[in-house]
Amino acid sequence: MTGMALAPRAGAQYARILGIGAYRPSRVVTNDEICEHIDSSDEWIRERTGIITRHFADEDESVVDMAAAAAEKALAAAGISADQLDAVVVCTVTHLLQTPSAAAELAFKLGAGTPAAFDISAACAGFSYGLAIAQDLIRGGSATRVLLVGVEKLSDITDPTDRGTAFIFGDGAGAAVIGPSDTPAIGPVVWGSDGAQTEAIIQDVTWRVFRNGATHKFPSLRMNGQQVFRWAVYEIAKVAREALDSAGIGADDLDVFIPHQANMRITDAMIKQLGLPESVVVARDIAETGNTSAASIPLAMGRMLEEGQIKSGDLALLIGFGAGLVYSAQVVVVP
Ligand code: COA
Fold first, then answer.
1. Ligand 1: does its nearest atom lie under 6 Å from the Cβ of 322?
2. Cα of 80 to ligand 1 centre, how many Å?
3. Which CATH number among 3.30.160.100, 3.40.630.30, 3.30.365.10, 3.40.47.10 corresponds to the domain 14-181?
4. Cα 196 to Cα 4, 38, 230, 326, distances in angstroms
5. Is the pTM higher than 0.85?
6. Along the chain (335 residues), what's the average pLDDT of each consecutive run of 10 residues?
């Protein structure tokens, strides 16, 4: 039969973050420990990146284990039980199983029943990408409550002897529960990619090359630090500005700035480019957590809430950027 209309499904008018949870592995790794494998110094790493320590997961602690620890805290903060979730979304580039997804395993581990479950590969923009998708799932009616986790075990794919990356990365997980809202609480996303710059941050060899035995060195990340730095400061600051404009607010209306914790100097340069007033509280979790890619924004937000630096109802600008190159930003109401 032609011309028959399919039944539509309407979702909530708006979505919001209901709760945040953060998990950092117990092992703290100092710059001095990193410098046992590269020609560098505690002073150089602090000056160039702002990183003092980072956390590394144990050998047998998986991405799913860390995600579950953060997720349980986010569910408790949101007052939601795992079996009320309709979708579980994991943002990661370090789940070292090609398939199945970390999300399906996580959903089962949490006792979430049979929610939709999938992973997102958007590197350091993962959490912001995921937030946009979660909000659209809820507004489109495909889900009512979504668990979104950014999680990375970057120590698994970092070469401890590579002077260009060994000092930057850390491990951890940050989770958010997202649900319906009566008022707008997640602003429009401004996102995109620049595939012409894939080489800027990239796994050095493919799994195929590794499999064929052309190298016995486990694949690991390589980064052109200066290229990434320039791109982040000159191109990505504009994206943050667009996210403010799209949300209909100015820099003066903002309470909190939570950029991806890539590098303290990038954060400082962005603050200048955006002309953020001093009243805006800025996430500086990188000092003790390093760069945890998709986990960095929820980890930073979790710490700021725990330490009372920010409060429920504050307006926060989030921006993620990284390998792809990809970027994503939006303004959110702090849960
Ligand atoms: N330890 C000590 N010295 C180092 C070093 C290290 N690990 N790596 C490089 N150097 C030295 C270089 O040899 C060079 O010395 P020279 O001036 O005597 O020749 C000097 O430091 C500058 O090297 P350069 O490569 O220009 O470093 P940089 O100032 O660009 O700093 C980064 C390197 C990685 C810290 C910086 O490029 C950066 O922060 N980039 C952004 C990376 C990022 O945020 N990535 C995450 C995106 S998700």
1. yes
2. 44
3. 3.40.47.10
4. 44, 30, 15, 11
5. yes
6. 84 97 98 98 98 98 98 98 98 97 98 97 98 98 98 98 97 98 98 97 95 91 96 92 96 97 96 95 98 98 97 98 97 98
